[in-house]
Amino acid sequence: MDLRIGNGYDIHRLVPGRPLILGGLRLEHPDGLGLDGHSDADVLVHALMDALLGALSLGDIGKYFPPDDPRWRGADSLVLLEQVVGLVTEQGWSIVNVDSVVVAERPKLKPHIEAMRSAIAARLGVEPERVGVKATTNEQLGPTGREEGIACHAVALLQKP
Ligand code: MG
């Protein structure tokens, strides 16, 4: 059995007047902030996509969904994730598991973690137990700590029989 591992990272700015979409869910920030970006700016799903692509050295999401392409304006990142999963499975690979950590001071993500895992698992075509979503603050340090943005780190493990 062949195994491949990939890692992904993303960060988007928190701004007024945008929805806060994380892990496919629409959340409420206490100050009404949301994530800025060309698509729905779902940093968690973007980091996962880069981890999946990275595992097979297929490049990054900018290669498949360039931010200057009007097709991806306001795109639902879960739909883009499905397309990335298609690239992976087309080549005979399957997902063993993914794991992620979202770095955000607010809102509290704990109440939403299970729903995020389910939403992501459905698009990955795996059981939720194979999808790790964790949350941490940055102890008010740096850009995520100052709530200038929300970041996410992710890894993905693939197998081919
Ligand atoms: Mg992104």
Write a structural description.
The protein has 161 residues and is an alpha+beta fold. It has a single domain, classed as 2-C-methyl-D-erythritol 2,4-cyclodiphosphate synthase (60s Ribosomal Protein L30, Chain: A). 29% of the residues lie in helices and 30% in strands. The protein is built from five helices and seven strands; from the N terminus they run ββββαααβαβαβ. It has a five-stranded mixed sheet with strand order 4-1-7-5-6. The protein has a two-stranded antiparallel ribbon with strand order 2-3. α1 packs parallel to α3 and α3 crosses α4. The longest helix is centred in the middle third of the chain and has 14 residues. The protein is globular. It binds magnesium ion (MG). Magnesium ion (MG) binds next to β1 and α1.
Percent helix among the residues?
Answer: 25-40%
- Indicate the structural class: alpha+beta
Radius of gyration: 15 Å
Order of helices and strands: EEEEHHHEHEHE
Multimerization status = single chain
Q: How many domains make up the coordinates?
A: 1
Largest sheet: 5 strands, mixed
Bound molecules: magnesium ion
Low-confidence stretches: none
Q: How many β-strand runs? A: 7
CA-based shape: globular
